[in-house]
């Protein structure tokens, strides 16, 4: 059984940078984000970026890397690094969301033992205001 543990709201910020070639393309999308959950509440530090690489056959890899500054569920100040990786196949481009795999690192002793394990998946979905990322514990 899965359990929703966190929702992250992502907002575009700045101008994307891209490179187009016959061998594929890459786009860097800067963003800001915030999260409010029972586990952690915070906002991104500068430097958050979503890197999208597309092959000539239109398979797209998305890798977002960002760090939050905030508070863990015990009220302690901490940082939470998130790396979210996913693939979008050409046949699935019309889907309103796609699945990815998040990885976490944190300096919070209260969060570290739980979040720094490989037991999560994410759903990334476009919204009117930006992107929502839902994090699920697949072993709950």
From TrEMBL:
Superkingdom of the organism of origin: Bacteria
Name under which the protein is recorded: DUF3237 family protein
Gene3D superfamilies the UniProt entry points to: 2.40.160.20
Origin species: Schaedlerella arabinosiphila
């Amino acid at each position: 059984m899965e359990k929703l543990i966190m929702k992250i709201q992502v907002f575009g910020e700045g101008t994307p940078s891209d490179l187009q070639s016959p061998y594929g393309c890459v786009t860097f999308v800067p963003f800001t984000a915030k999260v409010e959950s029972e586990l952690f509440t915070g906002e991104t530090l500068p430097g958050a970026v979503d890197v999208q690489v597309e092959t000539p056959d239109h398979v797209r890899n998305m890798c977002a890397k960002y760090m939050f500054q905030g508070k863990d569920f015990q009220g302690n100040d901490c940082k939470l690094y998130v790396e979210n990786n996913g693939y979008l196949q050409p046949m699935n481009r019309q889907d309103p969301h796609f699945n990815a795999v998040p990885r976490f690192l944190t300096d919070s002793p209260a969060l570290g033992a739980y979040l720094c394990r490989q037991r999560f998946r994410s759903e990334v979905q476009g919204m009117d205001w930006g992107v929502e990322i839902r994090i699920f514990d697949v072993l709950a």
